[in-house]
Amino acid sequence: MKRSNTRDISSFFTKKSTTKNASQVQTSEENPIPEINITRAPQPSAQGSSPSVTIPPPVVDIVNLSHDPGKRKKLIDFHPNERDLVRRMYIQRGPCQPVDHVFPKTLFGTKERRFNVKWFDSSWRPWLEYSVFKDAAFCFICYLFKAENTAGGDAFVSEGFKAWNRIETIRDHVGKHTSSHNNAVIAMELFTKQKGSIVTALSKQTDEIMSAYQVSDTIDSNKAQSITHLLMSFDFVFVAHLMVAIFGITNELNVALQKHDQDIVNAMSMVDITKTSLQKLRDEGWNLHMDKVTSFMVKYGVEVPNMEANYIVPGRRMYRENPYKVSRVENV
User: How far does Cα 62 stand from its chain's mean position?
Assistant: First the structure.
C-alpha cells in the first residue's frame, strides 16, 4: 500500500520560496517566470574593497632596447625591479656615438652648424651621445643615474640638445663638483664598483707582510718572504684580477637572487645577461685583462713574464737537444 506522505523525486529539487505576502505568492504561482542565469562581472563591495589580485611586473625586452637616445624609454617608466637590469644592459653597450654618420647641418643666423664628430674624442667621450633620430646630443650617464626631481640638464636627458652654435652649453653641462651630472657620475661608479677592492686589499696585505719580514724572528721572516713571493707572482695577480672581473659581472645577479620579492621572469633575464657577459669576457676580454694585469705588475715592480717564451713546467728541466746528434749525421 502506497504511503500518503510519499513525494515525487522532483519535489526535492523545488526551490524554496522566501517569506512573501499572500498576493506575491499567488501571482508567482499563476504566472511562473523562467529563471535566467546571468554572469556578472565582480563588483566592489559597499565598503569599496575589491578582491586582491597580484599582477606581476612587466618583463623588459632587453634585446630590443633602443640604442638611439632619442628613441629610449625614460628610465622612470620602467618597473623598479627592471631599472638596474636596464642600467646594466646600457653600460655594457656604452654611449651611442655613431662616428660614421653624416651629421646634417642646421642654419643658425647666416651660418650652418652641425654636430662635430671630434667631440667624441674629447673629455666628453664617457657621457656624450648623439641621436640620429632627433639630430640631438644627450648625456648617457645622466640618463641612467640622474636623481629624480633634480634641476638642470634636462635637455641632455629627455629633449636633446641641438644648438650647435652654443658649444659652451655642452661644456657647462658637466658643471662643478656638486652638479647633478657629477652626482650621476658618482652614482654610476658606485653601481659598477665592487664592495671592497681586491687590489687595495692585496696592496695592504703586502705592506703588512713586508713589515713582518723585517722582524728579528727568522721563522716569521721566512714565512713572510714565501707569502710575499706568492702574492707578487704573475699567477696570483692574473687570477686575482680575473676573479674581480667575474665577480663584477655576477654580483648584480647574486644580489637580485637574494631578494624575496624578485620576479622570476626578471631573474631569468638577468641570468641570460650574466651568461652573455661572461661569454663576452671569454671571447673578447683577453687583451683588456692582460693590460690591467701588466699595468698592476709594472706599478708594483713585479716581473712581467715573456708570453712568447717557451713554457717550463716547474720541477722539470728544460729539454736540450743532443749537440752530438748533428755532428754524427754530418760525419756519416
Answer: 10
pLDDT digits (tens, 9 = 90+) for 111-170: 999 999 999 988 899 999 999 999 999 999 999 988 776 655 578 888 899 999 888 888
Query: In the chain, where does DSSP find H-type helix?
Result: 22-30, 83-93, 140-145, 167-174, 180-192, 198-213, 218-231, 234-257, 264-284, 286-299, 323-331
Total H helices, total E strands in the chain: 11, 4
Mean pLDDT of 316-325: 54
Residues forming a β-bridge with 163: none
CA distance 287 to 281: 10
Asked whether the beta carbons of 65 and 74 are under 8 A apart, the reply is: no
Answering whether pTM is above 0.90, one says no
Looking up cell 703586502 gives 206
Residue type, 103: F
- 173: number of CA atoms within 13 Å, CB side? 26
Distance CA 179, CA 169 (A): 14
